[in-house]
## 1
Amino acid sequence: MQKTFFFKYLVVLLAFSFGHGHSQSNVNEKHINLDSIVSLQITSYEAINKLFKPFSRDSLIIASFLNKSQAKNYNFGSSFAYNLLGVYCRNTSQYEKAIAFHFKGLQLAKALNNTEMKILHLNMLGVVYRRKDAVRSALDYHKEALVLADMVSNKTETIKRSRAVSLNSIGNIYLALNQYKIAIEQFTKSLKIEENLGNILGLAINYHNIGYAYEGLGDLNKALEFYKKSLNYNKQINSKLGKVICNSSIAKIYIKQDRTEEAIKINETILNDAKGFRDKFHLVDIYTNQGWAYLKLGDLKKAKFNLDESLKIAINHDFKSAIEENYKYLSLLAEQEKDFKNALYYIKESRKYSDELKKEQNFQYVNDAIIKYDTEKIEDQLSFLERENEIVKLKFKKNMNLVIICGLVLFILIILGYILYRQRLLKKEKRILTLEQDVLRSQMNPHFMFNSLNSIKQYIISNEKKNAVYYLNKFAKLMRKILEASKAKEVSLFEELETIALYFNIENIRFSNTIEFTTKIDDTINLEGIKLPSLVLQPFIENAIWHGLSSKKGDKKIILEVLKTSKNHITINITDNGIGREQSAFIKQNKTIKKKSVGLTLTKERLLNFEKNYKHKFQLNFEDLKGENNIAIGTKVILKIPIR
């Protein structure tokens, strides 16, 4: 059934297009198309409006369609036809006929319960009554149309456009009340709808109305800006009427800006087009403005001619606001002509129409109606919000258990995460403790202690009491420092150098004090302020003595230098003039008993742990010193310690 309807609709659309493009004057062909539409019984405004768009100004076709629809009891078609006839009569200044057509169409739409058509007729009635300056009736119809449109949840494009018309019209009513800022708010709302719909005509109308509001506020430059925007949109769609309206408004601004001659030229260019319109509403404005312009220039003859023409048309069509304005200018003209009798007459007539337009009860009614509408809308919104709040409460209650479960799971995950973190922390602390214990064991090596005490014993046996006491004191002091250092993670460089000196003195006994130990310290360095891991230098001194110097013949030297090489590091160089690392490794390889050295490995691990608290990293390098013929002449340890 739906496919059959679509096929018939397509045939009718093609037939209409063909008939309009090639034989517009062929009445029989048009009648065939009308019969086809009536037989389809279309109930969609957008669908039927698309078919009738080329003929919307042809009153004969519309009247014929109305007769055929009535004959077939096609009430939707009849309501649609009444709307087109009403718009036609409004545009030809036949306001009473327009009201009658729209009222009949509205009754049919109500009988059909067709919301689209009801809103459409209500808005059109409002527009007609606004043209007649019947503000109360205009507001009633527009308000009713807007309420109906707001009640529709899934709005069609027609309803969206009808909302834009309602908002625009209510804005115009605010203009009548001189509430220009509120009017701009209404036009802006309408403008947004038209932008979303891509309706250029709607954009042109709203921009023009906003310009009128700014003109009322006295901001002529802003008004001119919006009038020109509207004019550009009218040019896009080549709307002759729109161009006439915009140019007329621009000319009026020019008159107010004392650019009177420019205004007259603009009015002259649009006058013939305005005369060609069957709707004389805009022609009256042009004549009035032209009369005002000539009045300002002092050309009273031309001023009177234009004002008389405007007044004649305004009275003929009962344009009250235009009549009131023309009488006002005619009074000024008569005053300049020293015709004070007519000046008084015209000003009285002007005030009579002004009072009629602006009766206090009329304004009060409009204000009350607007407030009532706004109040009803707010109450509807509050009711809607209450229902939404109830839904939210129910959803919250429904999902409460899920929230609690998620909370418990999250809490358990946090606890597990904390436990895992603590375990990692404990493992790290355990590793540090192990390192410290290994270092302590390394420093308090039983062989070192035995050999040191044995060396001191030789002094006792040799009756060298003074040397025995001297070195015994140093040994005791070294043991105390090692034990104290084992409790501290960091010591000052001053304390470290003091401990190294003690260690060297004890070890040097076994070499009959033949090793020369020298320290060179940069004067700019504060030894107390620099921190490093305790006993970190001892393995390097030990290696220098036992691997570099123990197998060497001749003079034996160790030089320890402390230098400030950059703002982020200090450099400690330990240089010996021993046999070098290659020869030392060869000797170690050929030993029967091989001892695994762990001192350097522990030192590196301790330095890695130490640097975590610093921005910069430590650096450790070994340099093999070579002499002539590439013969090893010693080893240099370069240790860079980060500083805060």
Note: Confidence is low (pLDDT under 50) at residues 1-32.
## 2
Amino acid sequence: MATADTPRSRFPKKAKIAVGAIVIAIVAVVLAAAAFPVGLLKGVAERRLSAEFGAPVTIGALSRTSIFSFTPEIVVNDLRIAQPAWAGKGDFLKIVRASAHLSIFDVMTGNAHPRSINVTGLDVALVRDAKGNSNWAGRPDKKSSPGNDAPSLDRLLIDKGRFTLRDAKRRLDIAGTITANGATGLAVDAAGSFDGAPARLTARGKPVTGQGTSDAWPFSANLASAVLDLTATGTTAGPLNFRDMTMKMTARGTSLKKLDHVIEAGLFGTQDIDLAGWVRHVGEDWFIDRLNGTIGRSRINAKATVLKRDGRTKIDATIDAPQFDFDDLADDAGLAAARAKEARIGKRVIPDTRIDLSRMGPTDGIIRFSIARLLVEGGSAFRSLKGNLTLDHRVLKLENAVAKLDSGRMTGWVKVDSTKPMPTFSTELRVEGALLETLVGQPDMIRGAVQGLVRITGHGTTIREAFGNGSGKIAFTASRGSMNRAAAFVLGQDLGGAIGQKLGDDDAMTPLTCAIIAFDAKNGVLRPAPFLIATAVSRGSGRGQINLDGETVALTVVGASKDKPVLKLVDPLRVGGTFSAPSITVESQPAKGKGSGKGIIGSIGRSIGSALGLRKSDGKKAEAPPPSAANCKALTQAALR
């Protein structure tokens, strides 16, 4: 007889019945799932797929090949997905028969991940418009969500597969075949056009016939055309798992823009490219372990990481260029447009580089660059360049910039703020250790050590436009140099001294005590602050203005000699023209009437007439103070502050 504390008495009969019922129910559900008639899901599948693709979907039949299995082979017959209205008429996808091994629980929850796929009679018409809407991605208004699940296929068979691809964004229009079997593996062969040029596309992959889903899967692909030849060879972590892959890419073509049509990285038009890169792709991130090659006559070596974090793209790159030509960053059409603009408005010195970053989107990052040798058509005082480019929410900064010159260097920073409709450009650059004879290019005329400052803030979509309305300061100073003695007499308006020096030692030099060419900039107009050149025999000071919008010069230089000249040049020096084609004349005002003297001959005549008392004075003229009056040290410090 059972006592009150036996286990049997502590577990009532009703509880036992309840537990047994639950176990039976669970077993029944499991058995029902294992034998679930998937044909009942045909209507549900059609409705869900129709909503997903925004087009009618019909399924001839949906069945399973085994009566009892948790991972049955599901068979679809006569599947048809029509093209969405925006993509045109006809069908997006037609399949005569397709089967896949799926978990029945995944099928019932709508989260199916096939482990094997067998397709017969595939016909697919892929379409993407210029805005990036694609029929394979579903409805254009559908929010994209990056998938985190990698394919886990262990078998792929495709028989009698055909496809067409009309990709307006990639400028690719091709048609061909796609097959997959145990003998030849995955094979894609197509022909058509790329960016208007005849093109062929081929791709190959190792047979997928029961290998481990995590094993490395070799693949190769090639797009060949007259404007771009792009090849990729590598492996993925499992068949078709392009979210985890390592590959080598080579690209030869007429421009980086052609490559960008394929990879869509925001690249621009350039000269011919010949590049090779070793690349890894993990999830949403890209790792460029090594990139080298040429763009035009520029040679580059680089590495970079491109990470996707919190909806933003973050770039960390290092670029080393043994030699670089900035003209290589424009294609032939861009260079032709620049030449046409130059012919229309005249040659300019300030670069017309675009600085509008409003379309950069959610991209941040840093690029460390070093150019060992700058190539500039026609020659340049600049020899090398290095610095750090940082981009943060459409604010671009060039920091720690160092540009080596033939002698000396330029250092400083540049900032472009594109957070508002009109970008703001600001910069502060300093020149140290440079030589006048190098910058001016006339060592027989003037020599000396140069220091400089460029501090400008302006608004515009290009550097030229920002300088054209910019405000700030531009100053260059020189000391401990020398100047051609005859030119120094002209600077001091000592015509007699200049003529005597020309008749004697024309190459003689005189000490340059200081040269301060400083300007205050306001709304693109530069005014002397001050303009002063002092030598051992003369001094000249300037007034007038320089217009950065057009790069026009309108300065007048008046001078004084250390000794009273026997024959004084009565007219001042006038500096005119443009930055690229300056002119120096000796003339008071434009000549009026017949017989009026012009240029240097007229000025000499007026000067002789004035010396002989034959010419009436036009009134008191501004003259520069004597050379000894210049406090060069103080003026230099003020100019460079």
Note: The radius of gyration is 39 Å.
